[in-house]
Design brief:
Helix content: under 10%
Strand content: 35-45%
Largest sheet: 5 strands, mixed
Strand order of the largest sheet: 16-17-18-19-23
Shape: globular
Radius of gyration: 20 Å
Distance between the termini: 37 Å
Length: about 425
């Protein structure tokens, strides 16, 4: 097999640094990009249609959020916001029928815009605790029965977030730590520029206590909005060593998961040094390669992991000007890389080691795509902002089904667990599965 997915790296992490407990396999979706941090799952027997014929249940949620459904065992964990009170919510629902098991207020979410609100980050769970984070800086841990274990506010501890479109990064659980990135401008977006400049940084938190383990400043040479990153940190294991990968501020970096020390970086890919090249898609890693979607019409590229210091001239494996993604994170599945260009509404299947495009096709639809694609059971699941959903074959460009759930905006990536598909469309949560006759 030429290309091994993130699953191999996650298994190596289990042996060396303790990524997650053993049950965080195909039967759970423990954090935003799934059990392997690449959008894929080994779940089988999944429906090829997401419509009334396969719908198990749907439930109304208190408000809209871009957070992905996080599933462990018989529970679903969601970040959310109550549209009527503007309270930021930590929610736990029954996987069996979607009824609310518990709902806790964590903060307030009065700030919003047409692209984001403060409930955009996804929850995380290890089956014992669940962690919830918000664009307000509120970070809280609950046990699975809804008892709060600790809470803190990252903005209060380390200064305000300087983001034009509202902070939206999810945390990362890896190596026995909870990682939080803050990659932002060094001065406020609006208002007076008084006070000391704010640093961009990577923060490691003890998931059991909420205490800071370390905080490492991440410098960059970007200007203004180009300093901002709405991506989420991603983990990989390379040569037996855990790494945390970040993208933003015109740079891609790998940090030691134990200490936060920067190992290598690819920097200054924008030779124009533009001022508004914010970064949205997270990185994805597998088999010694790191795949990046640099900001605003910069081509997708593959970087060879490893090295030291600035590896911009030595570690670029390939770039393809025909592959773009301004928002959607690529998917690694079945030894292939899938790139969803949400603005052009095209999905491309790529040979990861070479960048060769194996096939590409247009999805169409009424709206752009902001949710990242999900792969399982030889299928690819995609959803656009209008709540239209596609199921495609993974081995060729073939649309198996297209249906409409409705609900704007629909930006949360689809989760798959043990024969079920969970979709957050607008202010509703849906569960789908194959029906037995």
């Amino acid at each position: 097999m030429i290309f091994h997915t993130m699953r191999n790296h996650a298994l190596a992490g289990l042996l060396t640094v303790g990524l997650l407990v053993c049950s965080a396999g195909a039967e759970n979706w423990p954090q935003w990009r799934g059990p392997h941090l690449n959008g894929s799952s080994e779940s089988k027997n999944l429906p090829a249609k997401l419509d009334a014929s396969t719908q198990s249940w749907s439930v109304q949620l208190p408000g809209v959020s871009s957070g992905t459904p996080i599933v462990w065992g018989d529970r679903i964990f969601l970040t959310g916001i109550d549209d009527s009170t503007k309270k930021l919510l930590a929610m736990c629902l029954s996987r069996r029928d979607g009824h609310m098991l518990w709902k806790k207020e964590v903060g307030e979410g009065f700030i919003h815009n047409d692209r984001n609100n403060l409930a955009a980050p996804s929850a995380i769970t290890d089956g014992k605790l669940a962690w919830f984070y918000y664009g307000s800086g509120d970070l809280a841990a609950f046990d699975i029965d809804g008892n709060q274990k600790w809470a803190r506010n990252i903005q209060k501890d380390y200064g305000p977030f300087h983001m034009n479109w509202i902070y939206g990064s999810s945390p990362l659980l890896f190596d026995g730590k909870l990682y939080v990135q803050v990659l932002h401008r060094d001065v406020p977006v609006r208002g007076p520029k008084d006070g000391s400049p704010g640093d961009s940084y990577l923060l490691a938190v003890n998931p059991e206590t909420g205490q800071t383990i370390w905080r490492v400043v991440r410098p960059n040479n970007a200007l203004e909005e180009s300093k901002e990153s709405y991506s989420t940190p991603i983990a990989t294991t390379f040569n037996g060593k855990g790494e945390v990968l970040l993208i933003g501020g015109d740079a891609i970096t790998a940090s030691d998961a134990q200490t936060g020390k920067e190992l290598w970086r690819v920097a200054d890919w924008d030779s124009r040094h533009g001022r508004n090249n914010r970064t949205i898609p997270s990185l994805v890693a597998g088999d010694g390669l790191v795949f990046a979607c640099p900001s605003r019409n910069q081509p997708v590229c593959a970087i060879r992991d490893g090295g030291s210091g600035n590896v911009s001239q030595t570690n670029i494996a390939w770039r393809d000007k025909g592959l773009l993604s301004d928002v959607c994170v690529p998917l690694i599945y079945n030894d292939h890389l899938y790139v969803l260009d949400g603005d052009r509404k095209t999905l491309s299947c790529v040979e990861p080691q070479t960048g060769k495009i194996l096939w590409s096709g247009s999805l169409g639809g009424r709206a752009v795509f902001r949710a990242s694609p999900t792969g399982a059971d030889d299928k690819i699941y995609c959803m656009n902002e209008a709540g239209e959903v596609w199921v495609l074959a993974a081995d060729e460009f073939k649309i198996l089904s297209q249906s409409t759930l409705g609900g704007r905006p629909s930006r949360g990536s689809i989760a798959v667990v043990d024969g079920q598909v969970f979709v957050r469309a607008g202010d509703k949560l849906y569960a789908f599965e194959k029906k037995t006759l």
